[in-house]
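> Could you send the Phosphate ABC transporter ATP-binding protein prediction when you get a chance?

Sure thing. Input:
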Amino acid sequence: PRVDPAPAGPAPTTASGEPARLAELRAHEISCWFGDHMVLDRVSLTMRAGGITALIGPSGCGKSTFLRTLNRMHELVPSAKLAGEVLLDGEDIYAPDKKLTDARRHIGMVFQKPNPFPAMSIRENVIAGLKLTGTKASRSDKEALIERCLRLAGLWNEVKDRLEAPGGGLSGGQQQRLCIARSMAIQPRVLLMDEPCSALDPTSTRVIEETMKELAQEVTIVIVTHNMQQAARVSDQCAFFLAAHGTPGVIVEHGDTSAMFQNPQDQRTSDYVQGRF
Ligand code: ADP
Ligand code: MG
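Output:
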C-alpha cells in the first residue's frame, strides 16, 4: 500500500522572513593522516540540523583536525590525507564533482583567535566574504545584510554608529563577534567554531554563548571547546574524542549533552567531564 507523504507544513523561516537553511552534516568514517601519522581513525558523527554539537576531549586528540575535515580546511596542509565522507544534507563535499569553494561557501568557520581584517572597516569586514563567494548584492541589500549579520552576532548596537571604524580597533570579544558576522554574511548552512572563546574574557564568552543559541535558529553549529561548562551550557549534542597513548583520535562516546554529562556510559567520559584527567 502507498504511504501518504507527511503533510508539508510551511517552510521554516528566519526572524527576517527568509527561508531557514538548516542542514544536517554527517561525517562517515573519517580517517586523517599527516604524512604517515594517522590522527583520526574512522570517526563517524551526525550533526543534527539546527543543533549545536560540541566536540570535547583532551589536547591533541584530533578535534581541530576533525573540524577542519568538515569544510576541507585540512587540505591547506600539503601532507594531509583523508578517507571517508562528509555529507551536507546527503551530498558528499568530497565528491569528485564538488568544488572546494562549494564546501567553503556553505560551511563557515570561526577560529580561536579573532581574525578580522584589522585595517578594514567594520562594514567591509562583514561583507568581505561576498567577493570570495561571488555573491552579488545591490547597495541597499548590502546595507541590510550588514545590519542583519551584526545583529545576529549581537554586535549591532555596539558598532552601528561607527561602521567605518577599523575592525582591529574593537575589543577581543567584539572582534570575535565581527568574525561571526562575517561568517554569517555568506549565509552558510553550517558554522564551525574552533574554541571561539578560548582567547576571550568570561563576559565576552557569555555574550558569544548567547549569540550561538540565536544563531542555531538558522545555522547548524559545531563547536570545539575545552570548557565543560560551556559544552553543557550551549550544546544539545556532544562527542567525546580521545587519542590514547599515541593512537589516532576516535570518538569514545557521543549523544545528547545532558545524558553525556549526567549519565556517561564510558568510564573515560565520566572521568573527563568530571575533571579527572
Ligand atoms: P586537538 O584540536 O584535539 O587539540 P589537533 O587536531 O590539533 O588536536 O591535533 C591532532 C593530532 O594531529 C596531533 O597529534 C597533532 O600534533 C597533529 N597535527 C595537527 N595539525 C598538524 C599538522 N598541520 N601537521 C602535522 N600534524 C598535525
Ligand atoms: Mg584544537
